[in-house]
Known about the structure:
The chain is an alpha/beta fold. It has helices spanning 3-14, 19-28, 50-53, 55-71, 89-97, 104-107, 117-126, 209-225, 270-279, 290-297, 299-308, 312-326, 331-334; strands at residues 17-18, 78-83, 108-113, 132-135, 146-151, 160-164, 170-178, 181-186, 204-207, 227-236, 245-248, 251-253, 263-265, 268-269, 283-289, 335-341.
Amino acid sequence: xxxxxxxxRRIARxxxxxxxxxxxxxxxxxxxxxxxxxDPLGAAGDFTTAPEISQIFGEMLGLALAEAWMxxxxxxxxxxxxxxxxxxxxxxxxxxxxxxxxxxxxxxRIWLVETSPALRAAQKRRLEGFEVxxxxxxxxxxxxxxxxxxxxxxxxxxxxxxxxxxxxxxxESMVGLEGGRLTLGLAxxxxxxxxGAAPEGVVVREICPAGEAVATALGGRLAARGGLALAIDYGxxxxxxxxxxxxxxxxxxxxxxxxxxxxxxxHVDFAALAAAASAAGARVAGYAEQGAYLMRLxxxxxxxxxxxxxxxxxxxALRGQLTRLVSPEQMGRLFKVxxxxxxxxxxxxxFEGRE
Length: 355
Ligand code: SAH
């Protein structure tokens, strides 16, 4: 049995399912889901990410966390956590960059929130020599001052999608079955108070209830214990439009073909995450484009320092990597950074005087 057959049977039995259910099953089905069954990263996989492109990414974020930790009076112990750590590369770079920050490693309780057994194994290998614990959800993390990173985590959470349908309201995108094939359709329109009246013409709105729940949980912890959470992802502030997409072998694919075999994602609505975290008591301490943020943290100087020790080919590679991370034509503008802190915490590195 394939995931496609499982989905077809379920739809035949129960009727069309919301896009969010489809996305959740494709990404997380324990036996056939995309993440539980593979390492999707790198050249041989479906997509690549900033930490896989350059060590500078993790180094800058690690030093930003350590600086924020010191500015808060170096609480010990504290929680050094990551959501959706992939191969563990980002955390490995964070730990290398912060090795000489006095007391940081000794006070850190390292926790990774990861549901995929395949990726947990990769993280374990990558972080050998460190004491690391794993959790399935944020709720399972210990109650400590929180210093947390989430890179390309929120885009992997299921979204609900709605289309404006005139006075009747908003029609939700559903995955149904026609002639044995999965198809995208619409549920009958309903009022959606959160979106207001549906305008004329086609307007698409997306919400990510799972992402908002995570932001609420992080916000509550930051409110109670302080710290810094940095969420980095592609998306925008109050994003609109259809951003649901499938990626397979580094190319855009049909999201209904080969369920469980493609990475399904949507752009992250940072305004919704910020609203959820701030309703839970956290402070929204900053929002910026990835390129500008990394340069403010010193990515340019770090690339120069690395280049000074490299041969010609190495220098060329370093320049290429930095360009990929920060240039507006590449990841620099599409990717954003959201910084959340406790209500009494000082502004975090890169966001001083910018609230
Ligand atoms: N942060 C990494 C990997 C991004 S891929 C990097 O930048 O390279 C998305 C990651 O989130 C994977 O590790 C995936 O297994 C994990 N993930 C996806 N959905 C999740 C969920 N609901 N709970 C926990 N982890 C999840």
